[in-house]
Amino acid sequence: MIKEYTPLQSFPLKAGSSFAHPVQVLPERVKLSDPATDVMTDLSKVSLVGVRAQTSMDRANAKMIRYGVRMLLVLDDNEQLAGLLTATDVLGERPMRFLQNMGGTHADITVRDIMTPQGELEVLKIDDVQHAKVGQVVASLKKSNRQHALVVAEGADGGQTVCGLFSITQIARQLGAQIQSFELAHTFAEIEAVIARG
Q1: In Å, what is the CA distance from 161 to each residue of 47, 66, 120, 173?
Q2: What phi, psi does 151 have (nearest 5°)?
Q3: N or C: which end of the chain has fewer CB within 10 A?
Q4: Which residue positions in the chain have pLDDT lower than 70?
Q5: Which CATH architecture has domain 36-197?
Q6: What Å distances lie between residue 169 and 75, 77, 159, 178, CA to CA?
Q7: pLDDT of 137
Q8: Residue 74: beta bridge partners?
Q9: Within 13 Å, how many C-alpha atoms sit on residue 93's CB side?
């Protein structure tokens, strides 16, 4: 005998409806000796904001502002990682250098012109991160003189998938440090002094 199933009642979708966004809750406060994963944005729990390489720099900057982020992954037409664009790239000297070398106007600059291309990016491996401390991540960011670090998982075929992200701004906030002072601190003694000042 075949069982009969009654359909569920359906309703009209209300105007102004949104959709669920993945959410990751990180600890509000951490110490340098806490697990590195306590300060990592986990891309299986949070959607990362991306942009195409041919997008204008101004539109990319507006997107960062709209989403409240300081970094965008740059994707090619095959949804592969083509590079990274940070607020520092947009607001720093790269746009002026591009205009000096290539001419044109500010509106002519695209993401491709000022991003850090994939070939120049260095990443951390998730296997290492899962056994690391916050202090090691801070040391890695300071050593590379970068505001962000990408974390990758490697497949059996050697292919990499970006699965996480570290932001020095996020880490400073979680450590309870003043962000500008934290970004300028270079030694662990200076970093700990900034954290102590709050």
Answers
A1: 14, 26, 16, 27
A2: -115, 135
A3: N
A4: 21, 178-198
A5: Roll (3.10)
A6: 23, 30, 29, 9
A7: 93
A8: 51, 83
A9: 2
